[in-house]
Every structure is written in C-alpha cells, then in structure tokens.
Amino acid sequence: MMMTASLHPALIFFLGALAVALLRGRAQSVALLLVPVAGALNLLGLAEGEVARVTLFDYTLTPLRADRLALLFTYVFHLATFIGVIFALNVRDTGQHVAALLYAGSALGAVLAGDLITLFVFWELLAVTSVFLIWARRTPRAIAAGFRYLIIQVGSGLVLLAGVLVHVQQTGSVAFEFIGLDGLASWLIFLAFGIKCAFPFLHNWLTDAYPEATPSGTVFLSAFTTKVAVYALARAFPGTELLVYIGAAMTAFPIFFAVIENDLRRVLSYSIINQVGFMVTGVGIGTEMALNGSTAHVFAHIIYKALLLMSTGSVLLMTGRINGSDLGGLYKTMPVTAGLCIVGAASISAFPLFSGFVSKSMVMAAALEEGYGWIWLVLLFASAGVFHHAGIKVPFFAFFAHDSGIRAKEPPLNMLVAMGLAAFLCVFIGSYPWLLYDLLPFPVEYHPFDSTHVVAQMQLLFFSALAFTWLKLTGLYPPELPSVNIDVEWFYRRAAPRLLTGLIAFGRPIDLAFRRIALVRVERAIAGVFRVHGPNGRIARTWETGSKVLTVTLLFVIVLVLAYL
Amino acid sequence: MEKKHIFDKPENVKRLLWIFYAICAGLFLIDAVFHRHVIHAWENLFGFYSVFGFVACVVLVLVAKEMRKVLMRKDNYYDDDR
Questions:
Q1: A99 and A170 share a domain?
Q2: Chain B neighbors of A455, CB-CB under 8 A
Q3: From the list A373, A459, A460, which residue is nearest B40 (CB)?
Q4: Would you call B73 and A381 a contact, using CB atoms and an 8 Å cutoff?
Q5: Does residue A402 share a domain with residue A318?
Q6: Is A557 exposed, middle or buried (0-12, 13-18, 19+ CB in 10 A)?
Q7: Both A463 and A497 in a single domain?
Q8: Which domain covers residue A157, as residue numbers?
Q9: pLDDT in tens, B52-80
C-alpha cells in the first residue's frame, strides 16, 4: 500500500473506538474528543488527489481516493463527529460512544472508497454500527425500530452487492466511477443508493428509526447515512434526469407529513428527507453549479440539522418528552436552548445570513437555468414548507405556544457548547460562504447576496410565516395531537403481517383436511401390509413341506412350457 | 409567584405581531420599486414570491389537515405488533 504521511482517515476512527472501549471516565472523554481532532490533523497531511491501492486476488482495490468531492465530505464528517462527541460527552454509555465512532469511521471509509467492493464493505458497516445508536435507547419501541432499520439497511447493501457483481461481470472493473442508468447492474446499484438516500416509498426506515434513537444517537444518524448516499449518487449518477424528479418529490411529500406529526424529532426526520431532496435534485441536474449546490447543501445541512436535533434532544433529555402536544413554554427556563434552536431553524429555512441560504439557492438557481421551471416551483413550495414545519413548528411548539407548565432546566454545559459551536458555524457559513465555496468540487460563480435572491427569499419566508400566523389565529391550524400517522411502513408493519396471519388462518383448515386424508391413506396402507405381513398374515403363515414341493414343481412346469414356446 | 415572562403579557405578543405585519407589508410593496433580474416569467408578477409563500403554506396546512382523516391513528397504534 502506498501512503505518504497520512493514515487512512477511517483507521483513526476505528482505533479511536477501540481506545474509547477500553478507557473509562475522564480518559474516555479525552479520547472521544481527540479522535476527530487527530483525524482533522491527519486530513491536513492528506494531499488532494491522493490514491492508495492494494491488490486482492485478481482485483485492484482502492481503499483511498481523496479527490475534491470525497474530501469535502470527509471535512464535514469530521466536523459533525466533533460536534456530536461534545454533545454526547455526558452520556455514560461506552457502547454508544464506540458505535458513534465506528459509524463515523464507516462513513469516511465509504466516501473515500475508490472501488465498489470497498464501498460495499463500508456500506454494510454503516448499517451494523449505527443500529446500536438506536438500540441504546433500550425501549421496546427502539429495539423493534432498530431491527426494522437493520433489515432495510443490510438489504440495501445486498442489493448493492448484487449490482456490483453484475457490474464487475459486465465491465471487468471494480472502479467506483460514473455509472449512469444503463442496464441491470446500474439499476441495482441505483436502487441500493436510493434506499439509503430515502427515495420516496423507500424512505420510511428513516422516519421510523431516527426518532427512536438516543438524543445524541439521532445527531450522529442524521449526519452520515443519507449523506453517504448523496455522495454515492453524485459520484455514480450525476446528470441522471430521473433524479431531478425523485429529488423534487422528496422535497415536497415529507412536508405534509411533517405538518401533522406530533413527535418533534420525527418532524425533523421528515425534513431530512425534504433537505436531501434538494441535494438529489442538484445531482440530477448535474451541471457544475447544481453539483456545487448539492455538495454545499450537504455541508450546511449536516450542521444545522445536527443543531436542530441537538436542541430537540436537549428538550427530550431534560423533560422526558418530545411530543408537540406535551411541550410548550420552555423558553422561560431554557432560553439558551430556545435561541440556539431558532438559529438552526433559521438556517434550515434558508434565511439570508444563515447557512441554508447560501447552498440551497444554488440548486434552485441551477434548476431555473436548466429550464426545469415546474421543478423550480416544487422546490419553491418545499422551501416555504420547510420553513413552515422545521423553521416555525419545531421551535414554536417546543419553546413557545401554550405554557405546558414544564419548568425544565438548560441541558448540561457540554451540550450547550456543542449547540453553540454548531450555531456559530451556521451563522459563519451563512454570512461568509466563500470558505465553503472554495472547497466545492467546481469553481463557484454564484453570488448568493445578490439583492434579487435576498428580497425574493425574504418575501417567501415572511409570507409563509404570515400564513402560519393567520392559520393559528383563526384556529384553522391543525392542533398537535397525540397520534401516529401511517406511512409506507404500514405496508410492512401492518398489512404484510395481517395478510400473512390471514393466509395462515385461511390455509389452516385446508391443510388440516389434506393431512386427515393423508393420514387415513397411510393408516389403510399400514393395515393392508399388516394383513399380509402381520403375525396372522398370509406371508407369515407356516407352510407344509408338501405344499412347497408342489409349488416348486409347478414353477418347473411353467419354465418348461415357456422354454418350449 | 413565578416571574412574568416576556410573552406572558398579551400586549408584548401584540406588539411583536404588529412589527411582523409591518415587515410583511414592506416586503410586499417593495416589488413596486424593486426591479429584479429574472429567469422565470412568473418572477415578474407583482408580489409573486409573497403570494406564493402565503398560498403555498395555506394549501400545505389545509391538505395536511385533510390527510389526517386518512392517516391518523391512535398513539399506540403499532405498539401491539412487537
């Protein structure tokens, strides 16, 4: 293996996980914080364009390909890990810390993979490491949701493996490069990416499992899995027009669910799909500006979504509740958390000077430039919608609305620090985007603070807020209700089990009748055999010697006659 | 007695709302003097972004409210299937 000064970034995380598993107390906390820091220092030594190859049997594997696209993802993954471990520092659960580091390491391994086999290995590792962040909640709900998550995630890996095998068979190459939709192998790989990316109808694992994870677990989960999938799509399927429509659907449909959802972390899970939709649309458009927009949006999104999930996670930790119907008025005793949550809300809503604005608008501008007028309208609708549910609904029902009477304290200092750091980055990227623009795969010729963009966005957002205000004051706004809303998961959590029980109930009498008939037949056969071979049967009878002689003579006669014929 | 917080006083809420309405009105009227460079023809319509944002959210909420009739189940709907 050729390597210069640096280690493989994933290796640092895996070794760090080992250290964290062995250490306890303060030493463990130090190790946790050191992993992303050491990783970041290691990244500095990693030259752009560096490639490491190993030969395994007949194939040349490329466990490390550090080009601009991959490096951008590794930067934000390090940042997310750093914020996440600070937020999780007060958690006394070694398993969670180890799982989080292994999960982050797997994400790094996947985006740095230069070949499809390495990608597959890290793709599956993402699944099996992250599920522990869900199980760590240790509630029956979380454990069941974790199993459903694991089955779907590992399933995605198996589809990927099938696609890779066909692809290698057809092309003879394991290289992870542009694939494009063409033939069985590419469709299988596309489907595998689509499952992890939460395409419509394949999305429900996300909204099912993420809200069941621990407060810090959800922060890690929101950062890695879907973004690795976006990376994989950007690598293998840029400019695939189908992705434009899939992405637009992803931006639009979850916001309806988010409006009527009661669990605020589930509301945010739906908005992950909405935001990933913008990234997928950008990959589908495939121009330099669109791909820049998508990757910039990955960067911005990971941080503000972490911030939103940290603030709601703090609410969950401090009050034991997360349903909009149970919360309200928390700004009185948790003003700092409320303020930080609002920064996250402003960022996801793409307010000018907050991070979402400088990235999302690039995708939308690209859609217009490439003549996707209707798609642009859908994205505009989704932009208004995301402000409505993630920007207003989450902070409003948690911290304002009616006073729930809960007087919870601010979360521990480490959690506030993590949120503060994320909030700082949201504002920093939003007001000084050029540092981020310099990291994008292509040169940026986009001016986010152009007055046209700013005025249009302010009009859109303020009038969305006006709609909320009007609906709320007139009582038209649907109240937060303790409820669950069925989604695609209904088919595998309800319909399929019911159908199966139904089929079993229907088939049972038929099965029983067949068995009865068969049993009668078998009994008859046994009786028949017994009649012949039993103690009194013909075969078992003792024969006299004379009769035997007669039989033998008869046989001879028959043979003789036959011989003469 | 617990101390009064900022939004416990209805007049504070009212004040905030008036400021908000004033900003909305300003943003709506800015279209009269502001000439944007547009790509999509609809962007030139007076108040396009304002009206779109308002209508989009009202439609979103009203449709979602109707969806509840089909999709909403009890809190413990799935709990017995473990």
A1: yes
A2: 27, 30, 34, 36, 49
A3: A373
A4: no
A5: yes
A6: exposed
A7: no
A8: 1-236
A9: 999 999 999 999 999 999 999 998 888 86
